Amino acid sequence: MSELIGPVLEPANGNPPRKLVILLHGYGSDGNDLIGLGEFWAQGFPDVRFVSPNAPHTCGVNPFGFEWFPLDLERGDGDYEAGAESAYPAIRDYVLQKTEEAGLTLGDVVLGGFSQGAMMALYTGLQFEEPLAGILGFSGKLVDLENIGDLIESKPPICLVHGQDDEVVPVEGSLTAKEALEHYWLNVSIHISQKTGHSIAMDGLQFATGFLSRVLSPKGVGEDVAKDEFGEGV
Known about the structure:
Elements: E1 8-9, E2 19-24, H1 31-41, E3 48-51, E4 57-58, E5 66-67, H2 80-101, E6 109-114, H3 116-125, E7 134-138, H4 148-151, E8 158-163, H5 172-183, E9 188-193, E10 199-200, H6 202-216, E11 230-231
Parallel strand pairs: 2-3, 2-6, 6-7, 7-8, 8-9
Antiparallel strand pairs: 1-3, 4-5, 10-11
Helix pairs in contact: 2-3
């Protein structure tokens, strides 16, 4: 499998990074889409490097985007467990590589994602022997609820954000994930954005910003920086 590549946003203060946020895009999207979150957070987290790699495979339904693993959108399903298992090594290697390049430890890294990217952030992030600074999942779910206890190697703090009216990945995905992870004594915070579909509303983005402030400990981001919603592929 080829090395993952994608956009990089260097720390706004011009210094070497003291923290690292890795953002995994959704199905059919690419890193250029999700790096927008880094652009929103950059000034409030001036010592953070943001990176958002493209998934390794061209998307089966969108040749201009990428996928972490295949989905059958017509049938509304896919082999999530096998797909996540196949995508895991490349993401793990990427996280370790970017952490080493930055001269940091996994305790300085937040791994986040949207939709399929959130699924992979949870699946991958829980399997590091050293806990990450945090895991951030927008509009995602656990892909292997049955075996989640066997996958957990560390217990980083987790933040889940979901739209109440998400028609693509129903909100139950995050609610069930919170319940399952708390069963294994993980610290999980969750925010449900009302009247929001498969996108990231401003209140959800602000909730995630608060989470980053706690786990990365820089100065916070003002709530009036941006007014738009973020949304992308599955």
